[in-house]
Backbone:
């Protein structure tokens, strides 16, 4: 499950990098056909990003529930801040009337795109550290018996 979280975040990073590259590429900006193609590409990427949000948040919530049931208080304490952030981010979606987290128009704002990309890099670091912590804990538990 942790590997799937890492995969989701890597996919987010690649998608945001593609959006940033498309945002910075001024080729054929005066061409209406190219503009429609770029907008379709942005909408496609945003649609795929939205499909990964609920599974990522659900898997992380499942991890927290398993740590709670197993009385792994340190591990749960390390994961609770990200769980609260996920809940806050999900329930405080954009207030402009759109019900989506990654809107094709708002995501192309340079500040929002930078924020989303930094968020993805931070999540990748957290999930990688968590993966190795879980691996270490598993090996330690197996060796101690």
Residues:
């Amino acid at each position: 499950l942790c590997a799937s979280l890492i995969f989701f975040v890597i996919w987010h990073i690649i998608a945001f990098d593609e959006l940033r590259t498309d945002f910075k590429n001024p080729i054929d900006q005066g061409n209406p056909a190219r503009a429609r193609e770029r907008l379709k590409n942005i909408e496609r990427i945003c649609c795929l990003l939205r499909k990964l949000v609920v599974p990522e948040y659900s898997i992380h919530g499942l991890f927290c529930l398993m740590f709670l049931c197993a009385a792994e208080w340190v591990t749960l304490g390390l994961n609770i801040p990200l769980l609260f952030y996920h809940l806050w981010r999900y329930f405080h979606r954009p207030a402009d009337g759109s019900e989506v987290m990654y809107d094709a128009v708002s995501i192309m704002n340079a500040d929002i795109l930078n924020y989303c990309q930094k968020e993805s890099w931070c999540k990748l670091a957290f999930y990688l550290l968590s993966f190795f912590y879980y691996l270490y804990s598993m090996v330690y538990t197996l060796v101690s018996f």
